[in-house]
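Dear Dr. K.,

Following up on our conversation at the group meeting, I've run the structure prediction for Thymidine kinase from Streptomyces xantholiticus. I'm pasting the input sequence below exactly as I used it, so you can double-check it against your construct before we proceed with anything downstream. Let me know if the numbering doesn't match what you have in your notebook.
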Amino acid sequence: MPELVFFSGTMDCGKSTLALQIEHNRSARGLQGMIFTRDDRAGEGKLSSRLGLVTDAVEAAEGFDFYAYLVDRFSKGGRCDYVIADEAQFLAPEQIDQLARVVDDLELDVFAFGITTDFRSKLFPGSQRLVELADRVEVLQVEALCWCGARATHNARTVGGVMVVEGAQVVVGDVNQSPDEVGYEVLCRRHHRRRMTAATAKAAALSPDVLPVTSG
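The predicted structure tokens came back this morning:
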């Protein structure tokens, strides 16, 4: 039976890499899929991995209808054996409903990939709807690590290395951004709660107030 599967995890845990691997494995067996994405770091209409892999995709912008797009494709003699939807956290709940309808009515497997929570530890609406509707939710086993070495479970937005907790839910950025840009960092829960990024931890370690005192 076809399934709606949600692969979730923090940033930097290999979601897009797995999406590209699924595409490779299935296309190597003669299957033809449709790849959709939204606001990928590589630009519009691209699905990219931090390992440097990239492929073309259909940009599922605001108002895009997955079900109508695929029905139109089939009506024109096109083929689709499965669907991959990356950056699914950015999709609207009604678009997730459309993906579920693709599974149920068009009998296609749909593999959705996305972050569960935003930089405030709040559920993205798209991810919430996926948790509600998915046949399976798979948490990726490639663990991203906090700067302290613990398992990273939270996504932090940073400006100049300092964690921020206010602003629009969706601001496109990436890990390893330059200090003056909006960036993201994965943290364990403890350091997300304390708003302690790698940069602020390093600054605290170098502060004269905490340096060891040596006697003259």
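Two things stood out to me. The longest strand covers residues 109-114. The mean pLDDT is 86.

Best regards,
J.T.
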